[in-house]
Amino acid sequence: MNLQFPKEKIDRIKARYGDAIEEVVIEKVDVPVFYIRKDKIVDFLSSIRIEDGMEYDFLADLTAYDDNPPASIPEYGLGNVVRSGGSHRFCVVYQLFSLKFLDRIRIKVRVKEDEECPSMVPLWKGANWLEREVYDLYGIRFTGHPNMTRIMLDQRWVGYPQRKDYPIKKYQRFEGSSTLESLGLEEHPRHNPLEEVNSVSAASPLGQRTADRSNLKGPRT
Amino acid sequence: MPKDGAPDVLTTRLDDFVNWARANSLWPYPFGTSCCGIEMMATLSADYDMARFGAEVVRFSPRQSDMMIIAGTITEKMGPVLKTLYEQMHDPKWVIAMGACSSSGGIFDTYSVMQGADEVIPVDIYIPGCPPSPEGVIHGVMRLQEKIKNNKAMLT
Amino acid sequence: MSNINTGLQPPRKTDQFEEDDKDIFENSQMLINIGPQHPATHGTLRIACRLNGEVVEESKSEIGYLHRGMEKLGEVKTYHKFIPYTDRLNYCSALQNNVAYVTTVEKLMGIEIPPRNVYIRTMICEMARIIDHIICVGINAFDLGAMTYFLLGFHQREEAYTLIESLCGSRLTTSYTRIGGLSGDLPENFLPRMKKWLDGVEKTFKELDKLLTNNRIWVDRTKGVGTFTAEQALAYSMTGPCLRASNVNIDLRRDRPYLAYKDLEFDVPVAKGGDVYDRYLVRLAEIFESVRILRQIVEKMPKGPIWADDKRVRIPDKERVYNSMESLIHHFKFFMEGFDVPAGEAYCPMEGPNGEMGFYIISRGGPKAYRLRIRAPSFFMFQPVDEMIKGENIADVIAVIGSVNIIAGELDR
To answer: Does A206 lie at the interface with C, CB-CB under 8 angstroms?
Structure first.
């Protein structure tokens, strides 16, 4: 894979932001990858949005990955788990695109397991749900986020599924919906006059047909 | 009614008539969640018209329909919603699980997917396919019609 | 008229209620819950609106009702086995997702595909664009009462299904592309039938254009509704037709050409208003542009092989598998164990019908990906809906949701 990115632009970025950059990767990647220090990331991103000649003002994507999973991982068919070493666990990735110069770079921030990462919501409003998704699936909190709650999974879910040590088939079943409380709305008691007649309870012959899995919490056998 | 309890000629004829009427006027309630929803829309559209089978009136309210077609994956988050809507339907009601995901979880054996809609509600007809082609859906509806016509219960 | 006394009182304003009615009408806002199950069209999402009369004051949306864990599945399945899962992302235009995924893996492996393959992939991307726009505009119109648009447009989609079925065997979830090639070459009569289909699409949409574009009811219902300026759209990272309807001229096919787009002539429609009407106009214009691109592709289709000349990924042909032991073993190892992809990472975005669709794959060697991230445009487009519907009437909420083409499969993955 060859890097189709002008070398002098990489040097210019390195010269301008030298102290914030931990590492620059240009081998085996399609766009240059800059590892930025966590305490300098907000200044770096707010500056590179408006810097002459760079202007990376469009946040194409915000995600994360599990760089250094713990030593023992349950066996569920993962591929090659190669740890990259170091004291951090996760890497938060920002894919930036420049609308003026039409090129892309990738910014990564190394985050330790219980640390928080600064939130980009003041810079891009679109980062709101993206950071919630990262929190939901990885457990990385973002300081300064207006609403740090789960987005994809039920609010009562325990654990962070996208981490390498969460088995893929470990499901959790919940009764009722937690949505209305989480939205800040009150749930009025529902009056369903057909409830006694219609509901599928274990006593009725219809209920016997469905397997009762409400007590299962672990992986399915 | 005869002494041995067998249904009389009049009641069997009435049964047949009621079953015939129910089978030919199934009002579907499309519960489309994912890709099967698009094929369900294709079945209800002009090319593979399901209105020919009496399923003309697509009612988007559970109180006004009698056949729920679950088209798509049911996730753990959606399960309680499905149960609530099923309980709001009036008897007699039937459920068709369309596609692999609502029959048994499909290709998604993951942490957030229910392995079949029959984990929460009883299902009458399972239509295999991913997604089933509209001919398959129509075949499923026809089998449901046969099932209704064979129903021997007394006017329930 | 003034002599008629119906006995009804005229409506009173909220702050003018008398003391004894105050407790009933004090909190005169109503909570409306749209979803997660509503007329089988937009997928599973919930929008809870707080209304003051008919005007939406605040709304909160919630997603995740179709979260199927695809990104985790990407780490557990081999690269080849993940191809059917990509169909289920944007299931209205499944071919586009196949192409985007396979291109990313080929970039990681450094595989060059032959010209015929490039042209076929461009062709299926444009077909996917046309059929996705048919559904989006059709359903938007259907929700607002214009059912003819949906029924006539869906017939064209059925004709497209017949073409796609002859190509890869399945109507909706295609899994047509393979890493380094395609599952099969074009059938015998494909290009003439494609030309006929394009004529049909053009004719149908010229009629449908006359039905809606200058229709008084349509214009009144959609003009000025859900307006979104360019700054707001860029702050939310919107892409695709919704961004172009807000006067931002970005199209990855023209600006960062990939596949065969550098050899093809096409225009990119941009509208200035940013409301629902403009998004409809942009999508309609894109259908005609795609027809134009497809006609050029049909003329220029090169002959030659469709598989890249790389023995890591070349699936052996069936005649050789059944007759030669080495091919049988190669076939077996390919499908059971997968092939090794060298370490590295790549992100290849494409201009999908909905916006920038891309896969970000990190590989650390081996047959399975280390991280497979799906950048799905619907996720970015559904976020600002809360802001778009603030201050709109409740009836306009449906128009706005329909115009922002939300496909639940890629919203929740």
So the answer is: no
How many angstroms separate the CA atoms of C22 and C89, rounded? Answer: 51
CA A138, A25, A106, C101 torsion: positive or negative? negative
Query: Reading across the β-sheet that carries B67-71, which strands appear in turn?
Result: B28-32, B67-71, B94-98, B125-127
Q: Mutation target for B interface from C62, C65, C159: give the one with most B CBs within 10 A.
A: C65
Query: A61 — contact with chain C (CB < 8 Å)?
Result: yes
State the Cα–Cα distance between residues C43 and B41, nearest whole angstrom. Answer: 12
Give B67's strand partners. B28, B94
* CA distance readout (Å), B29 to B26, B57, B137: 9, 9, 14
Q: Which tens digit of pLDDT belongs to each residue from A131-147?
A: 999 999 999 999 989 88
Q: How far is CA C268 from the centre of its chain?
A: 17
Return the pLDDT at C18.
55
Q: Which residues of chain C have pLDDT under 70?
A: 1-28, 39-41
Range A168-184 average pLDDT: 73
What's the token pair of residue C16? Answer: 């003018």
Name the residue in chain A with its Cα closest to that of C250. Answer: A99
What pLDDT score was predicted for residue C31?
A: 77
Q: Would you place residue B9 in the very low, low, confident or very high pLDDT band (cuts 50, 70, 90)? A: low
* Tokens read off for C325: 């032991």
Reported confidence tier of residue A213, pLDDT bands at 50, 70, 90: very low
pTM: 0.87
User: Residues of chain B whose C-beta is under 8 A from some C-beta in C?
Assistant: 30-35, 37-42, 45-47, 60, 71-73, 75, 77-78, 81, 85, 107-108, 110-113, 130-131, 133
Here the tokens at position B45 are 């559209």
Residue B113 DSSP code: B
ipTM: 0.85
Distance (Å, whole) CA B104 – CA B99? 9
Tell which phi-psi region holds residue C240, choosing left (phi > 0), alpha (psi between -120 and 50) or beta: left
DSSP for C111-148 reads PPPPHHHHHHHHHHHHHHHHHHHHHHHHHHHHHTT-HH
For chain B, the first-to-last Cα distance in angstroms comes to 18
State how far the Cα of C288 lies from the Cα of C199, in Å rounded to an integer: 11
- pLDDT tens for C302-339 read 999 989 888 888 888 888 899 999 999 999 988 888 88
Q: To the nearest whole number, what is the mean pLDDT of chain B?
A: 85
C-alpha–C-alpha distance, residues A192 and B83, integer Å:
13
Placement of tokens 């990858």 in the chain? A33
Which 8-state DSSP code applies to residue C99?
Answer: H
Contacts 24+ apart (CB under 8 A), C189-193: C190/C163, C190/C166, C191/C298, C191/C301, C193/C163, C193/C166
Question: C42 CB near a chain B CB, below 8 Å?
Answer: no
Enter the DSSP assignment of C301. Answer: P
Asked whether the beta carbons of C375 and A58 are under 8 A apart, the reply is: no
pLDDT of residue C146: 84
- In single-letter form, the type of residue at position C149 comes to Y
pLDDT tens, position by position, A8-40: 888 888 888 888 888 888 888 888 899 998 888
From the list A136, A141, A214, A132, the residue with the least C-alpha distance to A171 is: A214
Closest Cα partner for A84 from A43, A136, A23, A162? A23
At residue C228, φ and ψ (nearest 5 deg) are -140, 120
Q: At B40, phi and psi to the nearest 5? A: -70, -40
Q: Give the C-alpha separation, A153 to C269, whole Å.
A: 38
Cα–Cα distance, A212 to A215 (Å, whole number): 8
What confidence tens digit (pLDDT) does each residue in C104-122 have? 999 998 899 999 999 999 9
